[in-house]
TrEMBL record:
Pfam family of the protein (one): YhfH
Name the record gives this protein: YhfH-like protein
Domain of life: Bacteria
């Protein structure tokens, strides 16, 4: 059963930022939905 759970999380699609649509480089099961740039954490 644990294999099925691991496969589920490994096969989740990449998360996309809700503002700009770019892929978010983090764990897919994280609660965040904006990239660092849209959160103002990166210098432009």
């Amino acid at each position: 059963m644990i294999e099925n759970i691991l496969e589920f999380f490994k096969n989740l699609p990449s998360k996309k930022c809700t503002e700009c649509g770019e892929t978010i480089e983090e764990q897919h099961e994280c609660y965040g939905n904006k990239c660092d740039k849209c959160l103002g954490l990166l210098d432009m």
